[in-house]
Each structure stands twice: as structure tokens, then as C-alpha cells.
Amino acid sequence: MGIEHTTFVGRSVERVEDAALLSGFGRYIDDLGTRPGTLHAAILRSPHAHADIVGIDIEVARALPGIVAVVTGRDLANITTGLVPAVRAALDARAIAVDRVRYVGEPVAIVVARDRYLAEDGCDLIEAQYRVRTAVVDPVAALAPDAPVLHEGVGSNLVSDRRFRYGDPETAFAESPHSLSVTVRYPRNTGSPMETYGVVATYDPTDDSYDVLANFQGPFSIHAVVARALKVPGNRLRLRTPPDSGGSFGVKQGVAPYAVLIAATARLVGQPVKWIEDRLEHLSASVSATNRVTTLKAAFDGEGRVTVLNWDQVEDCGAYLRAPEPATLYRMHGNLTGAYAIRNVAVRNRVVLTNKTPTGLVRGFGGPQVYYPLERLMQCIARKLGLDPFAVIRRNLIPADAFPYRTATGALYDSGDYQRALDEAARDGELDDLKRRRDAARAEGRLYGIGLTAAVEPSVSNMGYITTVLTAAERAKAGPKNGAQSTATITLDPVGSVTVQVASVPQGQGHRTVLAQVVADVLGIPMGQVRVTTDLDTAKDAWSIASGNYSSRFAAAVAGVAHLAATQLRDKLARIAAAQLNLRPEDLVFADGRIASRTNPDAGLPFGRVAATSHWSPGLVPEDIGSAIRETVFWTPPELTAPDADDLVNSSLCHGFIFDLCGVEIDRVTGKIRIDRYVTMHDCGRVLHPGMVEGQVRGGFAQALGAAVYEELAYGDDGAFLSGTFADYLLPTATEVPDLRILHVESPSPFTPLGAKGVGEGNCMSTPVCLANAVADALGLDAIDLPLTPSKLASLAAGADEPAPPAGHAAPKPPAKPGDRTLRGEGLAQVAAPPETVWAMLLDADLLASVIPGSHGVRKLSDTHFQADVSLGVGPVKGRYKADVTLFDLEAPRTATLTGTVTGSLGSGGGSGRITLEPDGAGGTRVSYVYEAAVGGKVAAVGGRLLDGAARVIIGGFFAALARRAGGPSGRNTGLAGFLRGLLRRLLARLGASA
Amino acid sequence: MKPASFGYVRAESLEEALDALRQHGPEARIIAGGQSLMPMLNMRLTKPAMLVDVMRIAALKEPHVEKGALVVPAGVRQAILLERPKLADDLPLLASALPWVGHIQTRARGTLCGSVAHADPSAEIPLCLVALEGEVRLRARRKARRITAEAFFTGMMVTEKADDEMIEAIAYPLRRRGTGYSFAEVGRRHGDFAIVACAAVVDSARMRLAIGGVADRPTARDFPHLDGSALDDALNAFAWDLGAGDDLHATARYRRDLVRSLGRRVLEDAAKVTKGETNREAAPCRS
């Protein structure tokens, strides 16, 4: 297959997109004009990971001038339904909370106003009351019988539990001399596009139809989910995409719930509504890749030849299972054996819900979660046997003569020569030199390691792979799903210029350039004569459920179908020209803007004249052609069959190959990683545009470096979201990303029209584990999880022993266990008043009101129950909060325990403390206290770094005020920091203060 | 991420700015470069009623040397100071530290006094001011006062500045002959908030080490000339006394380790001057 001669394909021609993108002429969703009367939405989101909504008071907000409406989940419940997931209808996955919130950032109300500023003012004025439930964050903990259950209708947090068996795993384990297992906790991260989500929606009541403009990326199977959630048939949901989209990396698939939310809101308010997501919203509540806990066990012989794999994967999809999840888990099902010829495989896949943001597409989609344990395993096998990891990897590879190769789990690997790729990578990447560098570094006492990774990069997803989550019987009942339809339309206009339209929805990748290359080559015209449009309108354009920009399907499937459409059109034009030239069509050549005889170039016609024939002189068009104005071609590869009765699934059409090797040095003092060399070898089949392939590799590598070293969507044990800004969610920048050595071999795919395979996601799959393998090698570790933070690596390098604090120093606090965000403290204060006086002050609402900094009044509900309105903060960071404090275990005038909560627009906090009053022997009181507290919501998400210090200031402020009120502090003002810290905690406990 | 509504005064003179502060009291905030304040406004972490812009005040634009100190008024952007030809000679510590302040884009707008007023505990500019025993010059409508840097910072983002005062200038004592200076910092990425930042000033009489990013404010300690295990012990005590905490990016232990190791490194580097060696390329820890 392929192209007869190429002028453009295979060359790094200048991208046609770039002039606009680089000079401010891009047309992104927020740049496009909206209809007059369009309103702006802001979304009030849950500060709690798990809570019942007790009430939402919207009256004050609604009364603000400029606010048009405040819409809650209950308001929308009548005109929408849940978003249908692939499994379990008992799980009501709505786009907005109804009566209960299950993750921090979950939409609770939508304020619609004249502008976004006012809408956000409105959000600040809504008083939502919650009854907090215990949250569960860890996927394994969520499986415990006593774990809090997110969806009672499901019965537990386990929404899917499937076991698979291929070959004879039991016998293989029994007969192999060695076995080994690795357990990996893969963390959460995301793709962080520069442009966030956006939706502009209109409802037409006369037609009961929605018009939704969204920077959605596909797959357009989600169109059906959105239409169903809006309770309209598909032809009454016109979904359009803007001409440009500012990055996605899979993430823009997750705009779908907001399409429902904003469209339904537009219906309620009767006017168009626009919503542009901001970065705080995006990081906390757009989409995350799944975190996964995997135990992978293998048996192998003395040379490291693996005979069997046993996968136990616990997939955490967050609070709701949203379509297409649990696709992250099943996308890789066909290639669970990676690049290796392993015939026995056992799999247990569990899908678990926890109180975190729902997951969705993120570049790499399931690959990093699979290759991390698989390639850690290969290194551990080599380590255990004392073998070179390179030899172990090479020994296990699928033989080059075995392609197309059917894996144990059902994938049909199209092509490859993995041994050659490995050998060329070792040669051109100078692996031997890297080993010398490692030896030299180690001889000097430096920490240096080498990492290797082999990975198969799947692309062009089978739309049926997700049904592997169902049993064969369930699948039979539902009917088979499979294929990967791609489509292209090529149109000739009356002057013979060419327009190409595809449903590929790019986000900056350069689809228009490649399509112009492909079509121009087929038609023998300059690229500039081909104009490509990639924005999609589901009411007008050709599309299918597989349309969109995901699973690295562009080069293989979309460029391929454009080639088919162009070829079909060319063949028609050849017949038209042949009739006019009195030649045979097969004797004609399309080149240099002409259609001419192969043997006599003078016998020919300008391309434009032939191309315009169907417009101007249809009579000259041979009858059986019909017309040659517009060709739409749909293509789906026959190899993508539905999962069979034995659960064999060809989850993807194409399988590229990657082999990475790297050398890494770790600074013993700072724990920082320096990448000495990174070599990445790719076989992505035929390369259509080398520059863009390089761009994909470099971009994927940068994101993977982020996932490996810098980025984590972090949650506390209580479900508080902790990385809500780019100061805490750390993207690698140009400063952090080292240069790469990129190598290629080409094994064209026999299954795609152009021989191309996907290349967009490979490094996201291979690089995290390659770096981890190097770090493990440097530090001599058996286990290492991401992210590879300097703090973690420094402590691994230094060991457990730390110089003890000097004599007289308070015993060090035990290190907090990961995820425990409890602020704990204790302190001491001297007050120049006897305990009885201080005691009375603590129980006197009016006096407290005057003592508490920022108090707007304290209400005494009982002798031991207080509520207060307080303005709390440090420096300029201030917010108004409602505090609720209860005292108990009172032993006047000696001791009391306090518990309390605070809630406000900046977040919420809760804690408890015990305060003890003792006479200091000089007429005053020594106040000692211990406390613990936690803070959630926006403040925790954006200001985690500062919470501890803020707590000190606030609690310190309270005790200082109390001491002043009681007649001034007594004694020395010693240990101010510790004192304030304790006070802060106390204040948090007492007043429910949060920073 | 849109700020709540606020008023805005673009002061053309110091008097105009101070009048606005007096009139609006705690509801007013000075805005200079806005590199900390604007994100806080947009996130609605702060909702001042009035912003007082001081960047048009001509009298606050020029750094100048005065009685052995470089006086940096409120309108001086970090990038401007960094371009000052003699900065590395006059203030080698600040010259080493300034490139660690944010990024080239933020330094192009951010001011030194703004960083001091913001009082982030991990900020480099306040750290240098404390290490060098500089001063903060505060001015209100009716009075002016000068306060040492160590007394100025009282907690995380909390200072001695009263609501009706603004920082008119800060003053960094110039390099003294026979004194060595050294700076080092570790952050996750270049330009991030420091996990630990160390500034050392060593002369014949003492070794002074200031640490940012660990306690709730930049904190300095003076030591007699120590070496070997005596220096280890002194740094260990300092490390523990700073009360390090765990956060998303680093453990308390990691911070203490860096105080001990990087602290020692910068002290030894700065001490080279007192031993007649040079330490002019004093940026030991690239990270």
C-alpha cells in the first residue's frame, strides 16, 4: 500500500498551523464571539471529599445585582440523567452533586451572571452546609469491609472484579525454578493543557435541541453519553468544536460532564451560557489519570526467561466511574505481556471508587501504569539472577520472524524487529560507554544508575476493548462492539481547489499539515492548494463514535483514511481526464499540478480544470462515476474484532516499539536527579513528518519526566486536595528537561493505509519506569515508587539515621506518615491572671468575642457550645468563616477539651485540643495545650505550604489577645514560635479557624 | 479566578500613597510588581478594598548608596537591581541570590520591597536582608521609622509594618573587606519556593548563617569560628531549633539535612575569604 511517489510525505515541511498559533491568530473557544445575551457561569465546588449536603442557601447570592440564576444539582435533576458508565447502572454519575458530594471540587451549584466576576462573587455568597462523612482515599483501603461506601446502591466501592486466565499459568508457576513479584503504587497525575475546558451552550425550546460548543477532543462515543444525559436523541445535540484547542493530552475528553452541566443550565435560564474553566478548577476537578496498585508476579528460568505473569491490578477511578472508564485499565489488556513472548498470563482487575476526582483520558492512558510494574519486574529479575538487564530484556523479546504476533491476551502485534531496535539503541546510544560512566562515578563514591525499558506502544484503539470489563455472557447479551472508524471528506470546488475535512479534533499536533501532505501527494498538487479543516460539527460533518483525537490514532487511521479518500477521488479524476485526453486512466500521472500521460507529458490537463469538471460540465463526467465533487470515506480495520468468548481482545490496531536507556546521577546531599543521558529508540512504522514525530517524542518525554520526578495530584488521608496550583503541581519546564537522543527504526504497519503507527504516547509509558529503574540501580533498591522527589531520594540515600537533636531539645516528632495532614502541636502560654479568671474568660461568649481577633460576634448556644463569625487569616490572606466550637470534659478551672469546625469560602477546618490551666505560683496561669487539626478546601489546595505557619499566627493571635485581656502576659516571652504554634492549634480547635 | 472588586489608586507621589493608606487602613494594600499579590487577588485569598499602586512614584525608582548601604526604594524591580553593574562587588550575596528569585519574567516586574513586605518565609530577598543585618525603612503619613530586618519579620507573611505604613525602602549593608558571602538553595525546580535557602556571612570575628524556607521567617544565627564536629554540632542544633515541618515537597528531616549540609557548605565557602582565598564564584549548589 502507500503512495506512488511522495513530494511531501516523509519530509518535515513547515506546519501550516503555526503562523496562526504563534502570532495570536489561533481561534480558541474563549476567543470566539458569542451570541448577544450570552451569560457567564461560575461553579461552586465542594470543599469536602465526602459529605452530605444539608442545605444550600442561595438567597443572598441571587439577590446580588447582575446575578441571573443560581442553579443546584436538584434543579438540574429533572432535565438531566446520569452519565452512563460502562458498568453498573446503580452508580449515579452526575455532572453535579445532588444531596451528596464525593470529591473535593465536585460541582455543587452554578451561578449564572452578566460576567464571570459577578458569577464568582455569587459563589462566595452561597452558603452550602455539609455534614461531613469519612472519606476513603486509598484504593486498597476502599476495599476493606468497613470502608466508607461512596455509592450505597453499588453496595461497596468495588464496581468491577474480573479474572482472566490465558495459557496455563498455574503449571508455569509450578514448573519454573524462580519467581518474584513487585508491588507498585502508581500515583495520580495529569496532562495539564495550557488551555482549560470551555463550553458555550444554547438550548432551543422550539426544537428541544441543544447547541454545544466545547473544546472536546473525542472519542465521540461520548456524544451519545452527553445526549442521553441531556435526555435528547443524538440528532438534537449539535456538538461543535472550535477551530483550535490549546492542548489536551487526553484531558479534554473530560469536558463532557461540563457540556451536560452548562447545556442544562442554559436551558433553565433560557439564554446562552458560557463557562471557561480556570486553573484552580482544572487541577482539582477536571480529570486525572488513574492511580493504581499493582502486584505483578512472574516465574522465570535461570536465564531470566519469563514463563508466566500474574497481574493483580486495583484501579482507582475516583468518585464516579465516568465513560469511557474503566478504559484506562483495559486499553492495555491485549499487550499485558509488553514486548515479550510470554504465553501464560493470569489477571485480576478490580475497579475501585474513592473520594477523589473522577479519572479519564490522560496521554499514555494505562501504559505507564502497566509498564511501570512490568519493567521494574524485568530489572528485579536481572538483579535477582545477577544478570545484565539488557540481556534479560533481549532474551524475552518476541522474535522478529513471529509478526504478525498474537499475544497471550489477544492483541495482534502488526510488525516489528525488537532485537534490531534494541541492538541499534545500545550501539547508537552507547550503552557500553554509559556503563563505563557508571563505573567511574561509582568509583568516586557517586550515586549513578542505568535504567532500561522496553515497551510496546499501542495505537488506534478498538472501540470494543472496553467491553472486556464485561463477561463473555454479558457481552453476548449487549451485542458486539469493535472497530475504529475513521473518516475523511475531500471536496473539490468550482475552481478546482481542494478542501479536506476530518473528524480528528487536533489540539495543536499539526493534523492539517500532515493531511495536506498526504492529499497533495496523491493529487500531485502543491500543499498550498489543499486546505484542511479539523473543527467538527456533529450536525454537518461525517463522524463516528471513534472520531476524535486519542489513542494516537491520527497518523495510522486518520491520515490513512484521508489517503484512501484522496486516492478514490484521484481515480475518478483520472477517468474524467482520460476521457478528455483519449488515454487510459492507468496511463495518467498526477504531478506538478497536472494530470498527464506517463509517456507523453505534453498530453495532459491542468489539475484544476479536471477537478472543476463535475461543477461546470457534468456532462463530460463518465456516467458511472456520478460526480467527482465530494468523497467521504469511512475506514475501519478488519483486525479490530470484538473480544471473543475466551476474553481474547485485540485492544489496538498498531503496536509500535520503544526501547529507552538512560544514565542518571543522584546528588547525595540534595537527592536531585541529573539525567546524564537519555536515549529513546522508536519504531512507529512509517514516519510521515519527522519533525512532528520528534515533537511528539520530546513532548511525551517532558510529560513523563514530570510524572516521574515532579508531578503528583496529591490528596491527604481525609481527601483534601493538596496540589491546586502550579506552585504545588510542578510541571517540568525547559530548564528541567534535558536533551534527548532520539533513534528510529521503521517497521511499517501492514494494517494501516500508510504503514504509519501512533507515536504520541510512547514515552509517557516508557520514561517513568526507565528513570525509576536507573534510580533503583543507583541506590541498590528493590522497590521504588513515583514521584522520585529529591526529599524521598535523599532519605533513601542517607538511610534512617539522623543526628539527634541536642540535649534539652524536645524529642523530635515522628515523621508524618504520607497523606497524614494532621497539624499537631502543643504549647505553653503565661497569662497574668489566676486560673479561675482565665477559665471564666474561656466560657464567656461576649468576652471571647472581644478577644478573638477578627470576631464579628460569638453566640453561646449552650454553656459549652459556641458559634462565631470570624475573619481569620495571616497577612493579606483573610477570609470570613463560621466557627462552631464545643467544649467537653470540663474540669473547672483546670482542663477542658474542645472540638470545632470552621467553614468559609476559602475552605474549612476542623480539630480538637485539650487545654490545661495551672497556677504559675506568681498569681498567674500557665496555659498548656495540645491540639490537632486539619484544613481542607481551597486553602489546602493552594496554600498547603503555608498552613502550618498560618496556624501559628492565628492561634498565637488568639492567646496573645487573651493574655492582653487578662492583664498582659506574665513571665518571659519564650519560644515564640512554639508558643504560637500551640496557640494556633488551640485557636483552630477553639474557633474552628483555618488559615 | 477573578478577583473581587477593588478600588485602585495610582499614586504619583509618596504623599499620595501614604494618604491612601491612612484613609483606607487595613483595607488597603500596596501593589508594586504584583507577582505575589495578583495571584492572591485572583484566587480571592485576599480581598483588599483598595490597591495603592506605587510604581509611578519617581522618588522610589532609584537604588542608591548611602552610608555604607545600598538603599533600594519600593519602586525598584528585581531585574533592574540585577542589572546594576556593581552589584556583585557591592552585594555579592544578593547578586548570588537574586537569580533564584522566581523567573526572569517575574523578576522583570517583581520588586525587592514587595518581596520583603510579602514576607514569604522561603523568599530569598528577605533572607539576604536578614543575613546582612539590613534594615527596613517604614513610612506613614506622619512618621518614619527604621527597623532591623530581624525585628521586621515576625511570622509567616506577618511583619512589624502597621496598616498605615508602607516600606519606603530597604537597605543592604555593602560588602565589607575581609568578609565572605555565600548563598545556596534547593528547590524542586529552579525558581520554585525554596525548600531550604542558605545565606552565609563570615568575617574574622564570626560566622553568620541565615536560613530560609524552614522556620516561619528567615532566621539567622551567629557562631564563633568553628570547624569539624563542633561546626556539625552547632549546625545540628540550629537545624533542630528551626522547627522544620513536613509538606508536600519535602520532609522535616530533609530540611534539617539540608541545613546541616548546605549550611556547612556555604559557611565554609564564605570562610575562604577570611583565609585569604577567593570565593567570588559563590554559587556552590546548582540545582
From TrEMBL, chain A:
Residue ranges annotated for the Aldehyde oxidase/xanthine dehydrogenase a/b hammerhead domain, each copy included: 23-134
Domain of life: Bacteria
Keyword Oxidoreductase found: yes
GO MF, one annotated term: iron ion binding
Region of interest (Disordered), residue spans: 797-823
Pfam families: Ald_Xan_dh_C, COXG, MoCoBD_1, MoCoBD_2
SMART domains, per database record: Ald_Xan_dh_C
Keywords linked to the UniProt accession: Molybdenum, Oxidoreductase
Keyword Oxidoreductase carried by entry: yes
Low complexity composition bias: residue spans: 797-811
UniProt-recorded name of the protein: Molybdopterin-dependent oxidoreductase
Protein's organism: Methylobacterium soli
TrEMBL record, chain B:
Lineage, top ranks: Bacteria, Pseudomonadati, Pseudomonadota, Alphaproteobacteria, Hyphomicrobiales
Designated name of the protein: Carbon monoxide dehydrogenase
SUPFAM superfamilies associated with the record: CO dehydrogenase flavoprotein C-terminal domain-like (SSF55447), FAD-binding/transporter-associated domain-like (SSF56176)
Assigned keywords, A-Z: FAD, Flavoprotein, Oxidoreductase
Biological source species: Methylobacterium soli
Record-annotated FAD-binding PCMH-type domain positions: 1-177
InterPro entries hit by this protein: CO_DH_flav_C (IPR005107), CO_DH_flav_C_dom_sf (IPR036683), Diverse_Substr_Oxidored (IPR051312), FAD-bd_PCMH (IPR016166), FAD-bd_PCMH-like_sf (IPR036318), FAD-bd_PCMH_sub1 (IPR016167), FAD-bd_PCMH_sub2 (IPR016169), Mopterin_DH_FAD-bd (IPR002346)
MF terms (GO), sorted A to Z: FAD binding; oxidoreductase activity
